[in-house]
Amino acid sequence: MKLTGRLAVVTGGYRGIGRACAEALAGEGARVIAADIFPDSPGYASDAIAYRKLDVGSEGDWQALSDTLAADPGRIDILVCAAGIAPTKASAHDVALADWDDILRVNQTGVLLGMRMATAMMLGRGPLSIVNISSIWGQVGGSGQIAYHASKGAVINMTRNAAVTYASRGIRVNAILPGLIDTDMVRVQKPEMNAATLALTPMGRIGLPREIAAGVVFLAGDDASFITGAILPIDGGYTAQ
Ligand SMILES: NC(=O)c1ccc[n+]([C@@H]2O[C@H](COP(=O)([O-])OP(=O)(O)OC[C@H]3O[C@@H](n4cnc5c(N)ncnc54)[C@H](O)[C@@H]3O)[C@@H](O)[C@H]2O)c1
Predict the structure, then answer these.
(1) How would DSSP label each residue in 37-78?
(2) Is 2 within the bounds of a domain?
(3) What letter does residue 235 receive in the DSSP assignment?
(4) Ligand 1 pocket: which of 131, 135, 185 to mutate (most atoms <8 Å of CB)?
(5) Does the residue 132 lie in any domain?
(6) Could you give the residue numbers annotated as active site?
(7) Residue 195 lies in a domain
(8) Residues 59, 77: contact at Cβ < 8 Å?
(9) Assigned domain for 218 exists
């Protein structure tokens, strides 16, 4: 058990990658707050995971969480920013500004607000480990989905910025770039869109949420004590090409 005694907050923790991260962190002994927009808990096998309703784009929700953490346990050790949306596939010529704003609010501003809360709480008090879930589409180009690509690219450089800013103060910040992973987000997409990504994935298969969670547990814990600003693809080789 490598994370016994740590307090972790995981956004997007209701399902998919975020849920797998919450379960994997709890499996290593962490106490976990899984945060998401749904009113009620999906139910977790581990008693170490508590569900909390939180909209990552809401300053008020983050302030309320900060107040809760300040009271008990007075700190946060691990933050995993996994909440994300990809509702529009539109390109530069046809993206609606409202859709653009919605995606940036969750995928980019949501990460900023999470990092702001955690760093403000732990600055000068470290250690703190932040793991942001970006995407292969933050690093390489693909067709369409300009708002999603923009938001995920921003998360990569926000990660690097925070890593350098806080490196000397006990706060590590890293990001993971998932390739095609078997979750609701891709299940609702057109099959031909997923097939196109799969066809270009050297390992020739879709990834599993627990394969992302394994990277999160590594980066969150002390085995990664000299790693900050790393951008780790877990993508079956997609971005190696
Ligand atoms: N599945 C993939 O192939 C893939 C690939 C690359 C990156 N990602 C990223 O991984 C992360 C997790 O995605 P997933 O595949 O598990 O999708 P998912 O849709 O299964 O899970 C995303 C979760 O985020 C939550 N969420 C959405 N808006 C929120 C908000 N405003 N506040 C709090 N929670 C919110 C959703 O309710 C959901 O539980 C996302 O950031 C996504 O962009 C996924």
Answers:
(1) SSSS----S-TTEEEEE--TT-HHHHHHHHHHHHHTTS---E
(2) no
(3) S
(4) 185
(5) yes
(6) 148
(7) yes
(8) no
(9) yes
Residue 101 is part of which domain span? 7-240
In Å, how far from its chain's centre is CA 76? 16
Over residues 52-108, the pLDDT tens digits come to 999 999 999 999 999 999 999 999 999 999 999 999 889 999 999 999 999 999 999
**Which DSSP letter does residue 237 get?**
T
**Ordered DSSP codes for 99-155:** HHHHHIIIIIIHHHHHHHHHHHHHTTT--EEEEEE--GGGTS--SS-HHHHHHHHHH
pLDDT digits (tens, 9 = 90+) for 14-47: 999 999 999 999 999 999 999 999 999 999 999 9
Give me the DSSP letters along 171-217.
EEEEEEEE-SB-SHHHHTS-HHHHHHHHHT-TT-S-B-HHHHHHHHH
CA 241, CA 238: separation in Å to the nearest integer? Answer: 6
Closest residue to atom 38 of ligand 1, CA basis: 12
Q: How far is the CA of 101 from the centre of ligand 1 (A)?
A: 17
Give the domain CATH number at 111.
3.40.50.720
Total domain count, the chain: 1
